[in-house]
Amino acid sequence: MIETLLCRLENFQPLADEDRRVLQQALTPPVRMDRGEDVISEGERPEHVHLMIDGWACRYKLLADGQRHIMAYLMPGDLCDIHITLLNRMDHSIGILTRAHVAGIPRQALDHIYAHHPELTRALFWSTLVDEATLREWLVNEGHRPADQRLAHLFCELLVRARVAGLTENHCMELPLTQDELSDAMGLSTVHTNRVLQKLRREGLLTLRGRTLSVHDWQGLTEFADFDPLYLHLERSERMSDLLGGI
Amino acid sequence: MIETLLCRLENFQPLADEDRRVLQQALTPPVRMDRGEDVISEGERPEHVHLMIDGWACRYKLLADGQRHIMAYLMPGDLCDIHITLLNRMDHSIGILTRAHVAGIPRQALDHIYAHHPELTRALFWSTLVDEATLREWLVNEGHRPADQRLAHLFCELLVRARVAGLTENHCMELPLTQDELSDAMGLSTVHTNRVLQKLRREGLLTLRGRTLSVHDWQGLTEFADFDPLYLHLERSERMSDLLGGI
DNA sequence: CGATCTGTTGATGCTCATCAAATCCAGTGG
DNA sequence: CCACTGGATTTGATGAGCATCAACAGATCG
Fold first, then answer.
1. Interface of B with A in 196-225 (CB under 8 A)
2. What are the TM regions of this chain, as residue ranges (chains A, B) (predicted)?
């Protein structure tokens, strides 16, 4: 799954073999984690950067009233928290959503990369900038789009990201999220999310059942959601071209 | 106003005189801009990083239906778009909100900094991580908080940021935003924003009139808004201590 | 096989958008 | 100095979108 990460980083620019090796060797062995556990919690001082090997996680914050807001989904190949070497304390938590394996890059190894591998450093920096761009799009999504478009837009994004990570078959992907977890990310109630999902299904755009997302009308979905993948900055990905062609 | 930037960067760690000089000398002379102009537009390939000398700007995207969503406010001392050196094309625009002066750091100068001034580079990287953290908080704000808390939270943030930039007097600051511009950031209609502002005023929390924000009950406001400034990562700022003490 | 989590359905009401019009204000030109 | 103008703020009325509460059906799992 380091392959997935490398593959993603190469959306910025091709990596030297040396850089690939350095990154690979920096990784600690994957740790098994279960749904409900935190990779790291708000307020903690992190010592590792974490990499999702398999399984899904999310960034989230808890509000004063106990509600959880999910700010990002992390799928296999995603780095969880590069920030962390530079920020003192986590301002949010990272929680596991499925059975998962998580590897780490020790702070020390990362410092070494920063000091001696400028190209790799830039690639990692690039990757956080993409995360930031994604965050901006989510902000637009929650701020301005009604519930149906909002969910549709999320599914577009997830399908593209999964595609680039090699996690799709045709227009289907494993999506191990409950409607509750979707709701906490979209700022909707579970009930409303449920009704919107039914509507998207009725309209022949997609179905979500048994942890599998199937997109039936990709073109229709992207148009409905006003989805423009520019913000994912994946222009270089070969796996993207057919999808993008369809947009 | 480079002072403000340096002062902000030193929230990460004190800068060497050498680094301060390098940054100062990298700046191009400020250019005068007017409300409505774009510093840079979506899709463009940027050649400078921009620094707000005076006046305000915002990051925004235009949606398919013509609505504008504001994703960040930029005040004097804020860098607009460091990303830019690494991302190919802007996935959003930066628009001027008041008469303003904007300086630039040429891409070339920035590359030089990246290559030869690791500490300064880290400080700049840190600064984008804070931007990202702010984005996450905005996401929570729009996703989960009702309109009154949402606006209150925004005002808390703006006051703290202005305070650190030396732009406040007591609990007042110049806030040159129309209710329309506030609405576009909060995902509310102008009408509703207006009513919420009246409510916050009636409750004695703050008044916003004639481009001036006056917070009358800081403690009450932060409690009402569920505001925790951790995400701004300003622990080192001396100017913050009195405000934070009040939280 | 019950216990628990997830998904589904119905009913009710609040928050907020929308439309429309009135007022206020700063700037501009006669 | 005043009339004019266009933008910003304010007010009222109406209705849509979505939250909330409650209950039930299905799935999953030890």
1. none
2. none
CA-CA distance, A41 to A60, in Å (whole number)? 9
Number of domains in chain B: 2
Mind telling me how many Å the CA of B123 is from chain A's nearest CA? Answer: 9
State the residue for tokens 């690639």: A123
- Domain interval for residue B35: 2-127
Residues B181-224 have pLDDT tens digits of 999 999 999 999 999 999 999 999 999 998 999 999 999 999 99
Give the domain CATH number at A61. Answer: 2.60.120.10
Task: Out of A65, A95, A128, pick the residue that ends a domain.
Answer: A128
Rounded CA-CA distance B190/A12 in Å is 40
Please give the pLDDT value at position B46. 87
Residues recorded for chain A: 247
Query: Do the beta carbons of residue B57 and residue B114 sit within 8 Å?
Result: no
The separation, in Å, between residue A178 CA and nucleotide D20 C1' comes to 20
Enter the DSSP assignment of A79: B
pLDDT tens profile B46-58: 888 999 999 999 9
CATH code of A165's domain = 1.10.10.10
Q: What DSSP assignment string belongs to B37-82?
A: -EEE-TT----EEEEEEES-EEEEEE-TTS-EEEEEEE-TT-BS-G
- Confidence band, pLDDT 50/70/90 cuts, at residue B88: confident
How many helices (H) and strands (E) chain A has is answered by 9, 11
CB contact under 8 A, B129 and A231: no
Tell me which chain A residues have a C-beta less than 8 angstroms from the C-beta of B226.
Answer: 63-64
Q: What's the confidence (pLDDT) of residue B132?
A: 95
d(CA B202, CA B197): 9
